[in-house]
Structure formats: structure tokens, C-alpha cells
Amino acid sequence: MAAQTSDSAASRTPHPVEALLDTNPAGALALLEELDPGAAPAGQRLLWRGRALHATGDLPGALQSLQAAAETLDAQAHPSALAEALLLLGRIQLARGDLDGAHAALRRAHDLAAQGLPDQQATALNQLAAVSHHRGEAAQALKYLHQALEIRVQRGDVTGQVHCLTNIGTQESWLGQYKEALEHLNQAYGLARTLPDDPALVAPILNNLAQVHHMNGDHRLAYEVMGAAYQATAAGHNPQHKAISALNLGAFALEVSELEAARQHLDLALEHSRALGFRMGELNALDSLGILYERTGAAQAAQDAFGAALALALEIGLVQGQVEARLHLGRLHLRAGRLDEAEAHLAEAERLAVQAELPKEHGDAAEALMEVYEGRGDPARALAYAHTLRGLERQRFDSERERQTRQLAILFEVERAHQETRLYQMRTTLAQEAREAAERQVEERTAELARAQHEVVTRLAMAAEYRDDTTGDHTRRVGRAAARIAQALGWPPAQASMLGIAARLHDVGKIGIPDRILLKKGHLTPAEYRQMQQHTLIGGRILSGGQSALLRLAEEIARTHHERWDGSGYPLGLRGEAIPLTGRIVAVADVFDALTQSRPYKAAWTTQQALQEIQAQAGRQFDPTIVAAALQVLPDAAPGQDHALPLPEEDVAPILGVFEQLLAERTAGDPALYDVEPDAD
Description:
Elements: H1 16-21, H2 25-34, H3 42-56, H4 59-75, H5 79-95, H6 99-113, H7 118-134, H8 138-155, H9 158-174, H10 178-193, H11 199-215, H12 219-234, H13 239-255, H14 259-276, H15 279-295, H16 299-316, H17 319-335, H18 339-355, H19 359-375, H20 379-465, H21 473-488, H22 493-502, H23 515-518, H24 526-533, H25 535-543, H26 549-560, H27 581-596, H28 607-616, H29 624-633, H30 652-667
Helix pairs in contact: 2-3, 3-4, 3-5, 4-5, 5-6, 5-7, 6-7, 7-8, 7-9, 8-9, 8-20, 9-10, 9-11, 10-11, 11-12, 11-13, 12-13, 13-14, 13-15, 14-15, 15-16, 15-17, 16-17, 17-18, 17-19, 18-19, 19-20, 20-30, 21-22, 21-27, 21-29, 22-26, 25-26, 26-27, 27-28
């Protein structure tokens, strides 16, 4: 029989008991006996006990404990632990020949695991494939295994992939697809070699490679490969795998007429299987021993072995086992001339084969019954079975053709599902790459927009400054001073930097002030002063409607940087904290720079003189808190020193021309923008 591999349950943080389960199951059992009942939930303790008993080879005890664990965990609503218990329960029921019970447990485990436990889901699919394998449903088993392999690949679980590929190779060999089987088994072996040395992982691969060579008719090679598998299994700790390897090695030795070796290994397999309660292994060992005894002329021993196999198949309800045992017994009695006994066994084998839809075994029974009736001199019944045999052969041919067609259809669907999965993964990858590229492009465009905004602000400030300060240094110094004051107040660097840039537009409204007023060297008349004050409103209107935070900030500064703490400022006469903080900061920075720079109407003050004036105006013109912060940072701004960030030299004349044209277009329909009181003269 082929070795069906299994996956381990989903890993969890190990408890002291659980830590011993794989390395010292007997120790785990002893620790469980000493464990305080309150130290772990009842369902978990039963699960650990079932795992430990299974590891020590006590399948009946493990079965009982796991059934109790499943009931308890179901009542306690622990889906992950329940799925783990059901997986091992199904595996044990499979080993004991209870295919229906195994299928029910594994199907439920799969449904639980499908709710977010992918490792356990793959394990359930792997074990469901084993059930289908023993039912003779190789195509369904292959479908389950491809689903399990897909999950293992997605999870990056190399060990799980090895198990799935090994079992896929097994099923393909049963379908006669020996080339594909060898490819998958070799792929599994290659993956296993990339992992730490583990005989329990390598042995099933070699075991199944031997099966493929056996089914392909190369029995000598199968026997040699199985010998290597047996050695690998002997180095492991799984008693059930040891029993399977001994059984297969004995069966292959029988095929190549190594009869003494076959007897030794089959006896060992029978001993191990009985000790474990491994009914499927015991049944197969008895069947192979019966063939061995028959071949060596020990007819009675063969009859006893086949009889024991029949009794066991009846006990566990395995129909195919009953059919094969009765066929062996019927042929044995037929060759001995005991026609009545032969007829009884063969007729029952035929009935069961028809009932279970086993056409090959039905044909074997019909052929043997034809010989029985020929021996009895009953040509009519012998002819009837000859016709039955011919019909079965035609039916078998048609069924085989239909089966192969159906299997090709299944393989096509599986391959199409794989292709769709790969296409989906490719589309997902491309979409992710496109999103990342789009995000990078957005970041680049955002940075470009920020640079463009800063450039517009710089050039706009230079265009305004060009009217009364051809160097443009005033806006730079005010921006830098405002940023330094903001940082002294605790603003984050990025926010302070944005304030420094926006502050450069505080006097952009001067573009709308006539040169005769803006550049006048003497004192302004009251009317001229009122017209000069309009630059705050002009600047606010120019900057209004901006969508960016930078332009909204600049608009706020342009409107409010001439308001005064005591309410005597312009244009709105705001008082105290009603003045936006940005306007209060820029007011101090603007006055400080104006005092320390020469103008057509005054000489430059020293830094100390300017600071004394700033301090004197605290609580009157300026916010006292901002004055205190300014006094910490402005002493470093010596007259004539540019503490602003360096900017490239630019020819502002072309920019000014373009900007003034745009300004004229914007203000053409709004005379109020320049509407001021007439001169008092």
C-alpha cells in the first residue's frame, strides 16, 4: 500500500506538556497525570492526551480521548483546538479503516479551518485526499491535494509542499500517470533536501517512488528504492510509518521472489500493526502473507491468513477487503478441488463487488466462478459467466475510457484554476506596482507643486518688493525672522518654515500703490497714508481664494500684519488675540527689519535700538508673548546680514511685467480695489 503523508497541526505557543509531545510522548502522558486540573482547560488536556497516545502507538486509547476532546471543545466553542482534535481523530479513524468516520471528522475540520486557519485547512484537505485514496477515488484525491498545495505555496510552507507533492505523485501513479508522478515526487525530494535532515519527511517520498516503479512494472527497482525508504523510516520515530515501510518492502520482495526477505518484513509489519491497532496495515499484511504462503506451498497457512484477513475486514466493515479476501479463499479452494467452499466465497465476492461497484473484482469473481462450473460439468452456467465476463471486460474498457476522460476534465479544471490563480496573482502584483508607481508620482508631483508654489511666492514677493526695494532682501529677512520667532514659540520646523515663506507676501498689496506715494521721500499726507494703508486689503484680495495652505496663510498675513495689540492698527482695528497669531508674528518681524534698514525717508537703526523699540511697544503695538520670543532670536539678526535661506539670483523685470499684466486683468472689473480717499491738499 502507498504511504500517505500528513501535515502537522497549526503551531501555537507550547505548554510544558505540549513541548514534550513530539520528543517524549510518554513523558507528556506522565506530566498530564500530575497536572493540576485548573492548569489547562479540560478539552485541551484531552487533546494533549490523544496526541500523546497516538505518538506512543495506542490508537484505540487516542481515538477515545480525541472523541471526548472534540465533544468538550465543541461545547466550549474553541474552533482552532476543535479543528486540531478532529484532524487527528480523522487520521486515526482512517488508520483503523473507518472511512466514513474519518471523512466526517475531516470534512468538519476543513469547514472550521476555512474560517481563517489556512494551515489546518491544508492539513484537512491532505487527509481527505487520503480517505479518497483508500476509497479508490484517485481523481478526487488529486483535486484535494492540488487545493492543499495551493495553500502551502501561498503560505511559503516548504514542508507542507513536500507532503502535498508526495501525495500528488502517489495519486498520479494510481491513475497510471507515471511520468507526472515521478516529476512530482522528484520535486518533493528536491524540496526536502533544502530542509534540515528529517527521515520522517524523506521516507514517504522514497516509499511512494517505489510504488510508482512497482505500478510501472519495474519491480526490482521498486524493491531497491523501498529498501532505502525502509532505512530512512527506521531512523525516525513514527511507529505507523515503520509498519507501512515494512509492509511495502515485504510486498515488493514478494514481487521479485525474495521470499525469505518478504516473510521477515511482512511478519514485522503484522506485528507492528497489531501493536498499534493499525487495522489497515494488519489487513494488508495478512493478505500479502497469504499470497506468500500460497506461493511456497503452505496452503493451510495461506488459508488461515486469508481467513484472518476476511474476519478483520468484516469487523471493520471494509467491503473491498472482504472482496479480496474471499477471492483469495475462493481460488485457494478451487485449486484444492473444494468446489462448494470455492463457490460460496466467490459468489459472495461477486455480490459484494456488484454492490460496491468494483468491476475489476467482479470480473475476477466471474472468471473464477466460470472455472467452478466448468469443474462441476455445468456448461450452461459456465457459459453464462463467460458472457458476464465478456460484458464486464467491454464495460471495463468503456468505463476506463470514461474515467480517463473524466480525469482529464478534472485535471483541466485544476489546471485552469491554477492558471486563474496565477493570473489573479499577476494582476494583483501589477495593480500593486501601479499603485506604488502612482503614489511615487503623486509624491513627485506634490513636491513639484510645493516647489512651484514657493517659486511663485518668491517671484511675487520680488515683484512687489521691486517697487521700493530693488534687491528684494526685505521680504527674505522678514520671512526668516518670522520663522525664527515661530520656532522660539514652539512651532514645529515645517510649520515655521511655511510661515517664513508666506510672510514674504505680507506687502504684496504694495503693487497697487502708486509710485508717487510708495516712493515718496518726504512724509505722507493723511490722505496718502490712508491710501498706503490700502495695501493690506489689496494684498488680501490678490491672495484670496487660494486652495493651498500656503496661500491661505499668506492672505491672512497680508490682511493683518498692520493690526496692533491695543486695537489702534489697520485695516480692521482688531485687538489682542482677535488678531491672527501669524499676523502678530509678522508684525514684529516687519517692524524690526524696517527699523534696521534705511529707507528714502529715514536712516537705519542699530539692532539694539530696534530691539529697545520693540520691547517698548510690547502690550501696545505688539503681543508681549511674541516680543519676549523675538528678543531671544532677533539679536542674532545684525543689520546688513541676510539670515534667510539662499535663493538664486533672478531677473525680476520680465516677471514683474507678466505679473502686472495679470494684476491689471484681475482688477479691471473691481475699481474698489484702488478706490481711496482723494488727497487732502
